[in-house]
């Protein structure tokens, strides 16, 4: 840690002062030999584990063959195979195309570029509590000031934020009503004629694992279709079995025009994608999309292995089993500071509030996380108010480890009374 402090930029923080030596199957082994239970998956990345045998084999084979040629110079099969897999797996049976990038933020930026090229319009709508990344355009799209935006402006123009659906806090359980509220704001303040894209996380991630009320997403998607606006689902965190569906949009049968994926896509290697309707994806001129590393062959090999693992090992079903187990554990905790238990699949959370009320309690979330860390359980916090404990175990974790972790969490919560 002393070397980190003197060598690494202070802006790059760490949740825990623990240096990893090995990881897989829901355990991180640190350099002192301590074993920690991993309820974070490196922020929803290592869905298939952190050293999945299929991923390790595919990466090893690819790295020995070649590490890079640049797909824009001399293409290779892995990139095309990942595009085919995404076209097949993402919601909707329309004709699709895919472009690959490196990070979630880069893919979100490209989705906006593509939507603008297709619609020849400028404006982009995003929502309260949204998180879309840390580049300049995506910081404009991200809602929360600290730690993300503070001191880093000015931000990209033509990004407009409207109210979303947060059933626990806005008391609106009817998604159609919440959508009508947002659409009224969009029509009055921006206008469909100026609007290129509406970008939304089907379950909001960093903003607090907020599931919109049923009906909210379908109503927004229908309005976009009727108004010539590209409906973009940012499934960077929710994609690839995480929510108990291959994609969170599947739950309500929403077929986004464009879907952005990253995090869980490639077993820990950096890769991201924009997949969508062929006519929209083909709007940019040839050479208009790309990047030196986008769709790197090693990352593509890892993605194909991760996707094979998700499909062949039944990890969508496994995510649903994890939801049942974890929600039962959370439901058994009697504590009136638990304001809300929510999420889907292996993307679950509790929102902590003042006793019996709804006032956010970020200190409690911090204290419980810290106590869990001290007991060897890696748990992350999130939320606009910083008062949400979120659980993102790898889907390859065992029930025994989950039980162990939630024993620790329950005790940590109890100890703060
Ligand atoms: C993490 C995340 C991003 C940004 O991805 P990076 O790879 O960190 O750039 C964008 N959108 C959502 C929903 C995310 O969770």
UniProtKB/TrEMBL annotation:
Encoding gene (name): gabT_1
Keywords noted in UniProt: Aminotransferase, Pyridoxal phosphate, Signal, Transferase
Pfam family, one: Aminotran_3
Alphabetized InterPro entries for the sequence: 4NH2But_aminotransferase_bac, Aminotrans_3, Aminotrans_3_PPA_site, Class-III_PLP-dep_AT, PyrdxlP-dep_Trfase, PyrdxlP-dep_Trfase_major, PyrdxlP-dep_Trfase_small
Protein name: (S)-3-amino-2-methylpropionate transaminase
Cofactor: pyridoxal 5'-phosphate
Pathways involved: Amino-acid degradation; 4-aminobutanoate degradation
Signal peptide (residue range): 1-20
Gene Ontology molecular-function annotations: transaminase activity
Top EC class, one word: transferase
Family from the record: Belongs to the class-III pyridoxal-phosphate-dependent aminotransferase family.
EC nos: 2.6.1.19, 2.6.1.22
Catalytic activity: (S)-3-amino-2-methylpropanoate + 2-oxoglutarate = 2-methyl-3-oxopropanoate + L-glutamate; 4-aminobutanoate + 2-oxoglutarate = succinate semialdehyde + L-glutamate
């Amino acid at each position: 840690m002393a070397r980190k402090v003197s060598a690494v930029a202070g802006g790059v923080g760490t949740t825990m002062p623990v240096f990893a030596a090995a990881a897989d199957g829901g355990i991180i082994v640190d350099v002192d030999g301590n074993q920690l239970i991993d309820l974070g998956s490196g922020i929803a990345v290592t869905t298939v584990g952190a050293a999945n045998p299929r991923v390790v084999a595919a990466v090893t084979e690819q790295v020995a063959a070649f590490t890079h040629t640049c797909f824009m110079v001399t293409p290779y099969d892995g990139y095309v195979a990942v595009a085919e897999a995404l076209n097949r797996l993402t919601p909707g049976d329309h004709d699709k195309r895919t472009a690959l990038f490196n990070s979630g933020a880069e893919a979100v930026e490209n989705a906006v570029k593509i939507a603008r090229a297709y619609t020849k319009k400028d404006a982009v709508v995003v929502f309260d509590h949204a998180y879309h990344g840390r580049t300049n355009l995506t910081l404009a799209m991200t809602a929360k000031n600290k730690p993300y935006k503070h001191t880093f402006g000015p931000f990209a123009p033509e990004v407009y934020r409207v109210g979303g659906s947060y059933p626990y806090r806005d008391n609106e359980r009817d998604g159609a009503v919440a959508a009508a509220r947002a659409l009224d704001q969009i029509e009055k303040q921006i206008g469909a004629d100026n609007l290129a894209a509406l970008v939304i996380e089907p379950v909001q991630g960093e903003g607090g694992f907020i599931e919109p009320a049923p009906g909210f997403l379908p109503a927004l998607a229908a309005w976009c279709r009727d108004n010539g606006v590209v409906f973009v689902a940012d499934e960077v965190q929710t994609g690839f079995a995480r929510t108990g569906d291959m994609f969170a949009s599947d739950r309500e049968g929403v077929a986004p025009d464009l879907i952005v994926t990253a995090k869980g896509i490639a077993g820990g290697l950096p890769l991201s994608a924009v997949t969508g309707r062929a006519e929209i994806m083909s709007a940019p001129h040839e050479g208009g999309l790309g990047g030196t590393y986008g769709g790197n062959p090693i990352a593509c090999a890892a993605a194909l292995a991760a996707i094979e693992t998700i499909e062949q090992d039944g990890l969508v079903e496994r995510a649903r089993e994890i939801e049942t187990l974890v929600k039962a554990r959370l439901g058994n905790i009697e504590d009136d500071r638990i304001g809300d238990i929510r999420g889907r699949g292996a993307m679950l959370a509790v929102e902590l509030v003042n006793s019996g009320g709804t006032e956010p309690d970020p200190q409690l979330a911090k204290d419980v996380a810290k106590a869990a860390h001290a007991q060897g359980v890696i748990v992350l916090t999130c939320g606009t108010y910083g008062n949400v404990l979120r659980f993102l175990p790898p889907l390859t974790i065992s029930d025994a480890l989950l039980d162990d972790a939630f024993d620790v969490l329950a005790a940590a919560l109890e100890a703060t009374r």
